[in-house]
Amino acid sequence: MKHVGFSLFLFLLLHTSSIAQSHKIDSLKSLIQTADHDTTRINTLNTLAQEYRRTQLDTAILLSTRALELCGQLPFSIKRGPGQVPFRTHATALSNRYLGIFNQRKSNFPLALSHYLEALKIREELEEKKEIAFHLDQIGIVYFNQGNFPKSLNYFLKALKIGEELGNQHLISKYLGHIGVIHKKQADYPKALEYYFRALKISEEIGTKRTTAANLGNIGIVYKNLKEYSKALEYHFKELKIYEELGEKGGIASNCNNIGAIFERQGDCSKALEYYFKGLEICEEIGAKRSMIIQLGNIGTCFTQLLKYDEAERYLLQALELSDRIGLINQTMSMEESLSQLYRETGQYQKAYEHYKGYSIIKDSLFNEDKSKEVGRLEAGFEYDKKLALEQAEHSKQSAVAASERERQKVVLYAISGGLLLLVVFFILLINRFRLKQKANLLLKAKNNMIEKQRTNILDSISYAKRIQQSILIPESDVQIHLPNSFIYYEPKDIVSGDFYWFSQQDGKSIIAIVDCTGHGVPGAFLSMIGNTLMNEIINEKQIIEPAAILGKLHSSILNSFQHGEENGQSHDGMDMALCVIDQKSKVIRFSGAMNPLYVVRNGGLETIKANLQSIGGRSIRAGKEVEPQFMGHEIPIEKDMTIYMFSDGYKDQFGGEKRNKFSGHRFKQLLSDNSKLKMNQQKAALSKAMEDWKGSHKQIDDMLVMGVKF
Fold first, then answer.
1. What are phi and psi of 347, to 5 degrees?
2. Which residues pair with 510 in a beta bridge?
3. End-to-end distance of the chain based on CA atoms, in angstroms?
4. 241: enclosing H helix or E strand
5. Is-contact 608 20, C-beta < 8 A?
6. How does pLDDT run across 390-425, given as a tens digit for each residue?
7. What is the rounded distance in angstroms from the CA atom of residue 427 to the CA atom of residue 434?
8. Which of these, 165, 96, 108, 86, lies nearest to 135 by C-alpha position?
9. Is the overall model pTM greater than 0.90, yes or no?
10. Phi, psi of 594 (to 5 degrees)
11. What is the dihedral of CA 279, 283, 284, 286, to 10 degrees?
């Protein structure tokens, strides 16, 4: 059974790709299936992962994850090498190394760091210096990408020390370059150039092209920052030539970004966009998320300079969402600042303020970290001065005692007398304070009783509101009469909810909507009642059943409902939603969304059907004028065993886990995809269990609503 299970894993993992595989990859697959020992499988899985690392990074991660799982099943008695190191120890370190590299390329920095630290621990126990240097350097890179420059520099210096001990010129050149990056990031350009030129000289002498290219690029960036643009382009074009010779796509993408930045600095945005788009295309191809954020942000700022505000907004929002999702704090701060500038230029001052506030919060947090270090230094100096002052006071006291014993006795007598007097005064004040506290406690008790009574009345009212709200929601069992393979996962944050779902059957077509109103609790519940009423009017009474038309009509109705009660006719109330019209007879789904997309799982993959970046009831101002939104409509053919998912943002935004992170859209997609083959009631139970495990003792922050339908 062990071999049957393993073969099934391999079949599901490797036979989903439609790309023709090389003879080497086919041979490795065959070897995994026919291997008679787990040691062979582990080696082959990691070798195959290396083959997939440039084209199918997710597959590479799955392969090395499987290798790591098999390592845990091996006995320590199996040895390898002259030193007779247990194979399990060596293979565990190697699998963690690969998983660190693959997750770093995916910009999953916390997971990459975890695997690198695990591998480093093993290599230090085995005293393998070259491997120790490698992992120290990679950990430094992870901390650099997270904006933690002191920790990053510390690990780079440790790696450089080992490289010098080994006399390995390649490693020395590489680590000198990384240290130069830290100085460049801190705007110490002379120091950065010193390290870069040292690194370049060594890499050219020993003929390591990749390291030479990296050093050339770093020198070009410094010259760009020094506004010596001709020198900067000279070094970057040298770098690009090497990467093209090597076929190094990641290097080409990064180089395109750097060249584009120079043209942008020179005011040639059209030429800059040519290189930015070339770099973005490569980043999307290889899944380099961090580089994608930089390219998207640069494209957005170029479009802003060209006064193409719609394109600028689209690319900057994509960059912000991606950087926020993977936790790149420096890029998030940069995107917030760029969006604030864009909205100021287009007269959308509320949005400009919100994004400037996001930028300021991140900037202040980074500043406060530096300020804390300075406070620590001041505190250390202060403690030293205080200790010195105490020693001097003690010395003076001893001198005074030796000079006049009688004076000392007088001081003691005065001190005792004063102390007794203070004790009497303190005792009188204590009695008076006790009496006042008794009186205050009686008043506080009366107020608490009144507050408790008011609280009970409010809770009773809200509970009654809950019954009203639940009465407008069609029971899940009624929905399942028309859509038998479906589930609704519904977890309000408070007694009443700002999320609601809506269902109707018109002319043999099932119309379903998942709606996320502004806020939660009582305010969100009131808005949900209005939304439900308007949808009944639009669909059931006016017989409008085209999704895009429904959203357009609902948008106008929401604006009309609130314009009389808002200053200057502007409302900040609205709703995000996903709406589907399912035509079982024609075998087609029509979808339209406002902020909330539709996920479709079919043929083993998950697709995202995008929604408009416009909330229902939200106002869109472009060039100082309000623009009526045009909601997009999509048609999706219904296929056998296809599953669709509609949802609000509460599930993926919930904080939890050991590091109190968001559940995240990536993790949510993976959860849906992993469970898509289960029965619908089992999928609902899996969603509930996953959230309970994730949330733990953390408080729920928003309403949660997920609906799934299988065909």
1. 80, 15
2. 505, 582
3. 32
4. helix 229-246
5. no
6. 445 555 555 555 566 666 666 666 767 677 777 777
7. 11
8. 96
9. no
10. -115, 100
11. 140
Closest by CA position to 310, among listed 620, 693, 652, 688: 620
Strand partners, 627: 620
User: Confidence class of residue 12 from pLDDT cuts 50, 70 and 90?
Assistant: very low
For residue 471, give the amino acid letter: S
State the residue for tokens 């009345």.
457
Q: Are 258 and 242 in contact (CB under 8 A)?
A: no
Which residue, chain included where needed, has tokens 């010129």? 169
- DSSP per residue over 135-169, as a string? HHHHHHHHHHHTT-HHHHHHHHHHHHHHHHHHT-H
CB 239 within 8 A of CB 259: no
What φ, ψ does residue 286 adopt, rounded to 5°?
-100, 0
Quick check: 584 and 512 in contact, CB under 8 A? no
Across 236-322, where does the E strand assignment appear?
A: none
Using the structure block, give the residue that is written with the tokens 């400009």: 352
CA distance 188 to 180: 9
Cα distances (angstroms) measured from residue 152 to each of 156, 250, 561: 6, 22, 54
Q: Please report which confidence band the pLDDT of residue 380 belongs to, taking 50, 70 and 90 as the band edges.
A: very low
Task: Report the SS3 class of residue 369.
Answer: helix
Tell me the C-alpha distance between 510 and 479, whole Å. 9
Mean pLDDT, residues 293-311 taken together: 88
Q: Which two tokens stand for residue 463?
A: 């509970």
Sorted by sequence, the CB contacts under 8 Å of residue 646 that are 6+ apart come out as 512, 513, 514, 578, 580, 596, 598, 599, 706, 707, 708
**Cα within 13 Å of Cα(174), Cβ side:** 23
- Enclosing H/E stretch for 560: helix 547-562
With beta carbons less than 8 A apart as the criterion, state whether 517 and 543 touch: no
> How far, CA to CA in Å, does 681 sit from each of 174, 477, 521, 644?
54, 12, 27, 15
C-alpha span between 508 and 521 (Å, rounded): 35
Task: Quick: pLDDT tens for 466-482.
Answer: 666 666 788 898 899 99
**3-state helix/strand/coil string of 457-474:** HHHHHHHHHHHHHHHHCC
Helix (H) or strand (E) holding 709: strand 704-710
DSSP β-bridge partners for residue 646: 707
Structure-block tokens of residue 219: 């020198």
At residue 570, the 3 state secondary structure works out as coil
